[in-house]
Design brief:
Layout lengths: L9 E2 L3 E2 L23 E3 L1 E3 L6 E4 L4 E5 L3 H7 L4 E8 L6 E6 L2 E2 L9 E4 L13 E5 L13 E4 L2 E7 L1 H9 L11
Parallel strand pairs: 3-7, 9-12
Antiparallel strand pairs: 1-4, 2-3, 5-6, 6-8, 7-8, 10-11, 12-13
């Protein structure tokens, strides 16, 4: 469990209204539209000061306050899906932000360090796939006109273009951290 930083809250994985975990907990970070039915809710794993942008649970599901949603809806309407989600005490205030695009654009040579799953790792299901990516760099030529996406093979990060970053900074969105890739 992460150590509490500055008393901020930590959100857990999204659940259905009956409190059951999603069938695939990576549903919201796969780089495709999520297939969900019925209302969702997210438990607060560690209470604290709430944020406008959150990476919830181990899946790093993006959860945004309703004030952030219009930024994505206006600047990247074809790249995102916004799904209402309840957080206890904050009903109708948050949405799951799903990047509906998956782009194969990691520049292995320009990235600081890229590691792959190998036979000796005894994970044949992951053989040849990214095990870790440090100091990620992407090849912009492979991105095209997509403004919000997850990277193929390393979906734990949400990539946004500069205009979205600037709009989020202007709106004083809390919780978002940006790193040039």
């Amino acid at each position: 469990m992460p150590a509490l930083l500055d008393g901020i809250w930590y959100l857990d994985e999204p659940l259905d209204k009956q409190g059951h975990e999603m069938e695939d907990w990576r549903e919201f970070t796969s780089g495709r539209s999520a297939r969900v039915s019925g209302p969702l809710w997210i438990p607060i794993d560690e209470p604290g000061r709430r944020l406008d942008y959150n990476a919830a649970g181990a899946s790093l599901t993006s959860v945004v306050h309703v004030k952030v949603a219009p930024i994505f809806a206006a600047l990247s309407p074809n790249d995102v899906q916004l799904i209402p989600v309840d957080i206890k005490g904050y009903l109708d205030e948050y949405l799951i932000l799903v990047a509906t695009r998956l782009v194969r654009c990691i520049d292995d040579e320009a990235s600081e360090e890229v590691m792959y799953w190998k036979p000796e790792d005894e994970r044949p299901d992951k053989l040849g796939k990214y095990r870790s990516v440090y100091g990620m760099r992407i090849d912009p030529a492979k991105v095209g006109d997509v403004k919000v996406f997850r990277t193929w093979g390393w979906t734990g990060v949400l990539i946004v273009f500069e205009d979205i970053k600037t709009a989020m900074e202007r709106a004083s969105v809390t919780g978002a951290e940006f790193e040039e890739v």
